[in-house]
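Posting for a labmate who doesn't have an account.
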Amino acid sequence: MRAEIRPIRWQDNQLLLLDQRRLPAEEIYLELADYRSAGQAITDMVVRGAPAIGITAAYAMVLAIDGAAQQADWQAALAHAAEELRAARPTAVNLAWAIDRQLELACAQSSAAAARAVLLQAAHALLAQDIADNQRMGRYGVEALPEHGGILTHCNTGSLATGGYGTALGVIRAGFAAGRDWQIYADETRPWLQGARLTAWELQKEGIPFSLNVDAAAGHLMATGKIQAVIVGADRIAANGDAANKIGTYSLAVLAHYHQIPFFVAAPLSTVDFAMPEGSEIVIEERAADEVRRCGGQQMSPAEVAVCNPAFDVTPASLIAGIITERGVARAPYTQALARLRP
């Protein structure tokens, strides 16, 4: 591997986030000293990707307790901050998972100072664990995918979306490290262009051969025999295997099913919401209209045109060939398979 990308850092009692809105033109870290700034960074897509959002939230809770410690009832103040952070983005389950985990740890302590020490240690551990889990996921994924051919991916699922290795893109990294003969195809991923801006940037840094394509080219690439597998990430997976991911993922799954191409999801088990029976219950975030009206700072449509801008869609489990996790690859029926892998 030629590059080490660390999008989330803790330094001098501040949270440092690589501002992904500015990539690939600029590599700039934002320095955040309070939890509201961290929550806003999640909302504003400074950081994105379910695992990275969860890690950011864990560190945001450390920042939150710095303010809560000044209150007479620091636990109540921390719980209030947790609710604010939980609202930053509704679809990514890792956000609520990390916040609830940190809140439970904090409330078990006798003082705010003790809680802060525990939360910081837990956030550091979560970051390290995420990288280790992604590396294990990569090894499982390499065995699940074809040994050679074209691999199509959507959005960004690499180091930038995690603690520093990647889920679906981590599988791709692991495949090239293992000598797989793959050609990668990366969807540009409108409207935020995570594929064009972020995945392309990461793959270039890694020296991995790839082609960037417009989202609408996926069907053509499959029909002409260029794609042998599709691999994507997920922001929330229901207990039955239905998976919410960046908008456009469901379309890819339908196309892959039609062309008899295996479609894989790579995600840590923390992304599985075992309390949610099926994907129809997943809340789909609707984002600002100007994300579609404008691109690269330029107006692309009439200024006041009505816009439908869902950030995610849900791929039914029936279209998924396998869910690659850090504990193995789950296959249908997913309710039983995921439950067996559950830590």
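Reply:
Got it, the structure tokens are right above this. The chain has two domains: 8-132, 146-341.
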